[in-house]
Specification:
- With 315 residues, the protein is α+β, with helices and mostly antiparallel strands.
- It folds into 2 domains: 129 residues, Gcn5-related N-acetyltransferase (GNAT) (Aminopeptidase), CATH 3.40.630.30; 157 residues, 3-Layer(aba) Sandwich (Aminopeptidase).
- 34% of the residues lie in helices and 30% in strands.
- Strand 3 and strand 4 form a beta hairpin.
- The longest helix is centred in the first third of the chain and has 19 residues.
Length: 315
C-alpha cells in the first residue's frame, strides 16, 4: 500500500474509484455525484486540487483532497473503495490532507464538512488537528403525502435573477453571530454570501438549481425570507438554504417556505427531499422534524485558523 500525491496519479487511473464513489453517494445520500466527479477530474487536470491517493498495487483504493476557495482551504470528499473501509486507511489519508492544507504557505484557514466521507472516525482526526467542530445531520423525507403549502397572509413567489443581491443580504444578516457563520466563511460578508448564492443559482454548485422550488417572501419594504433549492438527482430535491430576517422570525415564514418547496418538488415528480442542519440550531431542527424529515447520515462541520487566531464560537 502506497500513499501518493494526486499530482502523481493520472485521471485515467483514478476514474474507476471516482465511478464507485458516484454510485456510493447516489445510494447513501440520493445524490447524483457525477457532476462533482467530473469537476474533480477537471481539477486534477488543471492541477487545481491538492491531495493524496492510496494505491494497492496498481489500483487506486482511496483518495482525499482540498481546494483553495475564497481565502480558505476546503477539504473535499474522503472516499475509500468497498473492502478498504474501516481499516484506518481513510484516517491516515485524512491526516496527510489536513497536514498539507494547514501547512500550505499563505493559507490561514481550513474548513470541511464530512458529509462525503466513508470514514466513521474522520471527525476525531479534525479534533487532533486543532479544529473546532459541531455535529450536523443530513435529513431526508419522502414526498408521498407531502405537507400542504402554507401561504396564508404571506407573499411568496419564485426567486428571480434580480433577487440574488437581496437574497444574499438576507442570508448574511440572518447568520450574523451564529454557529454556522463561525464555522463557514461563506456567511462572513455580504460579498461572500453573494458568491454563494450565485454559485447555487448560476453555476449548479449543489446539484441542478430548481427555479420552481426556490422562493422568496416579500415584506412591505422588500424581501424578508428566501429558500434556495436544487435537484440532486432525478428523484431527490434538496433545500440548500433557508433564511429569514431575525425580526421576521417566529411568524411561520420558514414553515411556509419549506412546505411550498416540498409542494414544488412533488409537482415536478420527485419522490424525496433532503437538507442538512446543525444540531445546535434547535429551532430549525424541530421544524424539520415536524415537517417529516428524518436522519439519513450524521456528519460534522469543522474549521481551523492558524494560531494565534481562533474560531470564535457563540456562547
Amino acid at each position: 500500500m502506497r500513499t501518493l500525491p494526486l499530482t502523481e496519479v493520472s485521471t485515467r487511473e483514478l476514474r474507476p474509484l471516482l465511478q464507485e464513489e458516484s454510485e456510493h453517494w447516489h445510494e447513501e445520500l440520493l445524490w447524483d455525484y457525477s457532476d462533482v466527479s467530473a469537476a474533480v477530474v477537471s481539477g486534477l487536470e488543471r492541477r487545481a486540487l491538492s491531495g493524496f491517493v492510496l494505491r494497492d498495487g496498481a489500483r487506486s483504493v482511496a483518495y482525499g483532497y482540498y481546494m483553495l476557495d475564497g481565502g480558505r482551504a476546503i477539504v473535499g470528499s474522503l472516499f475509500a473503495a468497498a473492502g478498504f473501509r474501516g481499516k484506518g486507511l481513510e484516517e491516515s489519508l485524512l491526516d496527510c490532507v489536513l497536514s498539507a492544507a494547514q501547512g500550505r504557505p499563505g493559507n490561514d484557514r481550513v474548513e470541511c464538512q464530512t458529509l462525503f466521507s466513508t470514514s466513521r472516525k474522520a471527525d476525531e482526526r479534525f479534533t487532533r488537528a486543532g479544529f473546532e467542530s459541531r455535529p450536523r445531520h443530513y435529513l431526508v423525507r419522502p414526498l408521498a403525502g407531502a405537507v400542504a403549502a402554507t401561504r396564508a397572509g404571506l407573499k411568496l413567489r419564485p426567486l428571480r435573477r434580480e433577487d440574488l443581491a437581496a437574497a444574499a443580504q438576507i442570508i448574511h444578516r440572518s447568520h450574523q453571530g451564529t454557529l454556522d457563520a463561525a464555522l463557514n466563511l461563506t456567511y462572513a460578508t455580504p460579498a461572500l454570501c453573494r458568491s454563494f448564492v450565485e454559485t447555487l443559482v448560476l453555476r449548479a454548485g449543489c446539484g441542478r438549481f430548481d427555479p420552481e422550488a426556490s422562493l422568496v417572501v416579500e415584506g412591505r419594504d422588500g424581501l424578508i425570507g428566501v429558500l434556495l433549492a436544487s435537484q440532486l438527482s432525478a428523484s431527490n430535491g434538496h433545500i440548500c438554504q433557508v433564511s429569514v430576517l431575525a425580526d421576521e422570525q417566529s411568524r411561520g415564514l420558514g414553515t411556509a417556505l419549506v412546505t411550498s418547496a416540498l409542494a414544488a418538488f412533488r409537482r415536478q415528480g420527485l419522490s424525496s427531499a433532503s437538507l442538512s442542519v446543525t444540531l445546535d440550531n434547535h429551532r430549525a431542527y424541530r421544524l424539520y422534524q415536524h415537517l417529516g424529515f428524518r436522519l439519513r447520515k450524521e456528519f460534522a462541520a469543522h474549521a481551523w485558523v492558524r494560531p494565534p487566531g481562533r474560531i470564535e464560537l457563540p456562547a
